[in-house]
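Take a look at this chain, tokens included, and explain the fold to me:
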Amino acid sequence: MKHPIRQLPGRWKALPLIFLFQLLACLAMAQVRFSGNVTASDGSAVPGVSVRLSNTSTGAVTDATGKYSFTANVQPGNYTMEFSGIGFKAMRRAVSVSGSAVSVDMVMEEDVLKMDEIVVIGSSLRQSRKQLGNTVNSVNAKQLTNTGSGNLGAALQGKVPGAQITQTSGDPSGGISVRMRGTSTIKGSSEPLYVVDGVVVSNATTNVTNLNVGSGGDIGTNRMADINPADIEKIDVIPGASASAIYGSRASNGVVLITTKAGKQGQLKVDFSTSIAMNELRKKVYISTYGKQFGSTALRLGNISDGPGNTVTYTRPDGQTRKLSTDLVDVTRYDYQDQIFRTGLGTDNYVSVSGGSEKTKYYFSGGYYYNQGIIRNTDFRRFNFKTRIDQTINDYISVSGGLAYSNTFSNEKPNGNVFWSPINAINITNNIYNIEERDVSGNLKNVEPTRVNPLSVIEDMHLTQAVSRTISDVQLKIRPVKGLNIDYILGVDNFSQEGRNLIEKYPYIAAQEGLGYAASAMVNSFLINNDVNISYNTNFGDFSSLTTAGFNHQYQKITGLFNEGRDLLNGITTINGAAVRLDPRYTDDQRQVFGGFLQQTFGYKNIFFLTGAARVDGATTFPKDTRTYFYPKVSGSWNISEMGFWKDFSNTWFTSARVRGSWGLAGNLTGIGTYERFSTYLSGSINGIATYNLNTQLGNEFVEPERSSELEFGTDLSFLNNRLGIIFTIYDKKIVGSSLLVDRVLAPSSGGSARTENVGNLTNKGWELGINANPFAGKDFSWSIGASVSRNKNLVTSSSQVTPISLPNPTGATSVILAGQPVGVFYGNYFERDAKGGMSLDAQGRPIAAINNPTQKVLLRKVIGSPHPDWILSFSNNLSYKKLSLSILFDGALGQEVFNADRRTRQGVGIGDYSEKELKGELPRGYIFAIYNTEEWRVESGSYVKLREVALSYELPKFAKFIKSSSVSLVGRNLVSFDTYDGYDPETNAAGNASVLRGLDFGNVPIPRTYQLSFRASF
């Protein structure tokens, strides 16, 4: 009988030998411990440096003492260790493995330009900065610490060159507006796209707490307020259209790519922080307490109204005439700011647990943030929980999953854009009433007719907002062969937003919702993303190639239910109890966005890199026949200092040089609603019979997405042995193909009043300069400086109409769209000027408004200001001496104007500084009436430079074995504003995050000054 093995075909006879060789290979592999110290050139320890065994996922991060340690299963032989850290060049060291332990120390070289830094360019895609032909600005976790704010947007202020980041309101739940390289749309949003760990997320601003406020803005909290800055590891910002290859139709406003913290191999680590904060009003506006009034105590708006007794008659150039009282009566005046504002308290608490083995890494965190506003009865609360697990299955496959949950709740008041906000209640009320007086029932007493007692706003208006949000993702990474990466990301962003409004019935007035008002809003948002990216990286001789292809799909569903009721009996607080029920509104918005891209990068040594990319994108917002659009990109980078001649040419004062350029085409899908291409009907009633009426806003079946082209060139230079870095970029961004979306006014014969059409063009041209310097870096003392300045010129080159397109808003601002001018300029009537440029005055010293001629008396109009800054700048200083460190940040915006509606209102009701001068006879009688309707007088300089952040920190000596490190910090925020603005703060916007309505001040809550004391510890 033959042996069974001998009966197998010949190829199977080798199977035992294969198993034997594999067993021998496994036995040959051994667990090797890699360890060492990482220091700077002065010998000081460098924490946070990533140490990795080349071509593997095995590695570690240096601790606070610069030490690292990890184990890896490797065979004896030669390997390469890679060291990379923020602010340092990437370093490599060849090592030989022959035993069970390898010790490798490394001295890091500074890289002020951060050319070797790996930056996120989209989804799971990453490249080194020196390979890119476009600008990528990065903000690390350290820069988000000790900012004095728990809001991510506020924490970024002054840290992103070229970005105008403004806090539109000082309310604790107020919004933050981000503009990168100017306003790029009229109807849509100019906010960038936000991506968290590869998942596109919503940053929507949805008004759920001021339903009774008219249109003309985008007020409310934008949803970046849900993210805890303490959970963020790094933020990469791509400001230009070079992001088009990855996010084509959504990239015209730039992309903010957020990478959150994850576990690292090593022992369990616990980080803890807690802080207390105090918020206060930075400055009061001038409120007159001069004890006189014109006419009588019963006279409303005495400076601009006909009055009793002795009068003087004044006729303005536009023909309006008033008999203004000259009699003075004694009054007692109050400063209502003392009753409205308070000192608010807050706390920010955070704890994280992280660690892991070579194959499994984990990160858990939780946070509680609470902040009281400087307006009484306002606050904001946020709970956060985050977890991330990374699991290596084998040498080829790894998976990771993350879940971030946040729950926020805010008590709010009407915030600007409305006459009965707390600030406007002060500005529009003659301050001769004691607003704290109450009747026998304990109710607040009335003030002048049609006005609301400012304390009623505080005590009787209840606006709350509750948000529950989850951002989650599952990611699969496959590395089947060397150089080939396959990544899949499934991400979900899901949140509910509930707003409740109650204005209790006033006992003294029926106006301003005085009969009682109740409302509720429920908005649900669901976004799901699927991303597949495949990349292949290979080298052939001195050349390298990186090929990347990807596809992504996003489904979005947003629903909203809105209910309102008016006229409530005492004790009734619900809509069901309202005598007048307004028609409920329900919205349902579903949209899909999909696209694929191909990107190819070729490199020659480390000298030249050339990238070409193409993307095809589609969205169900547009008709099927015109649904997809092509978004190309090309970029190049030349690292001059990597060339051979540079070693002979360079010296210590000129260290490195790089030039770069890029061009891309990107889109903006926010300019048109999902169903706006359709003409719709509205339900109605005629004589009690249900009927349909055509919506006068007609649909447009040929509408297209807005598309912008951007060309940028730049250079990166370093000097003085890498201690001084200069980054300069110039760009030209413009809408192409007349694709700017505008609401075009139609002739009545068309059957409607307006239709959204692609009929406009818009440009943004400018430059950005960034400077980073390390004047001194020693073992005990170090000093670093950062500065940036940028300039942008926005211009509407064509619009749908020759005449200005007015932008409706409740502030009275004359914001318009006008070809040949920036978006949203102030276009209004103005004063005559003398030869020296000053206001022309009549014989009594009153300003004269410009009119067309004495017969028609029509006030002339012109551009009287622009809300766009000419310059955006920032300057930071960071000093450390042994265990003590100090950081100082200034930032500002210069050259813009603010439409100050509050200034005019204060003068009209008799409580302003000009009103007081008229009462005292320092200005002629009728001065306020002369300027009251002249819009130029409401426009003033909004330039400012702020001492944004000051942080003093001290690393405590080790006082317990279980505490690895600890520190205390004292932080001040918004401490000083250098400006000439006649208001609370020139950093403001009553229209919230609106794209074109900018620079409006009308009842906005001022931004507070904040002091924060923090304690941090690692275990």
Notes: The CA atoms of residues 518 and 574 lie 6 Å apart. The longest strand covers residues 517-540.
